[in-house]
Amino acid sequence: MPLILASSSPRRRELLQAASIPFISQPADVPEVHTPGELPTQFSERLAREKARAVWQKLPTNPSNFVLGADTIVIVDNHILGKPGSPDDAVRMLRLISGRTHEVTTSVCLIGANSGRTYEDVRSETSRVVVSPISEQEIRDYVGHGEPMDKAGAYAIQGVAGRWIPRIEGCYFNIVGLPIPLVYRMLKEHGAL
């Protein structure tokens, strides 16, 4: 029963491939709009669920597939840093995380059917990321490099920004965009592997 990844993220695809988890990718077009009063984890869990549902609803009746939706957010002072909307926004975000510790939460939603009943299993993983001080010139150069523009919090730990991250607490893969050990456990629990 094939797993359908409700994402176009190349990082999520690479992580699943590296873990030898077979899947096909079918991106979900879901607006990532924060609802006032929504806590960060509630927001990422809602988006993961909406992404998975958007793809699930396109499948034939009584599908034998599993759909996995995911959403990653960066949290600083209980504020959500999503993907930057502009280079200036990326600079702002990088200034916020410079010299500080922040959290990265990835929420995942696995949708499947068992005995004709659809279920949704939503879980979250949070990691802490320690960032060294980043100079203004380093921030400007990094934003000019282009890497931050499609990343939550305006950085990629597996890329150039890795040089400013001396320590993490928790799952590394979660910070990249998909907590592989958690996803693997969920897939096994639901008989998808």
Domain module tally:
1
Helix percentage range: 25-40%
Terminus-to-terminus distance: 8 Å
CATH class membership: Alpha Beta
Radius of gyration: 17 Å
Structure classification: alpha/beta
Query: How confident is the prediction overall: mean pLDDT?
Result: 93
Uncertain ranges: none
Characterization of this structure:
The model has no long low-confidence stretch (mean pLDDT 93). Helix 3 crosses helix 4. The longest helix is centred in the N-terminal third of the chain and has 17 residues. The protein is an alpha/beta fold and 193 residues long. The chain has a single domain, classed as Maf protein. The termini are close together. The chain contains six helices and seven strands. Strands 1, 2, 3, 4, 5, 6 and 7 form a seven-stranded mixed beta sheet that branches. 32% of the residues lie in helices and 26% in strands. A hairpin with a 2-residue loop joins strand 3 and strand 4.
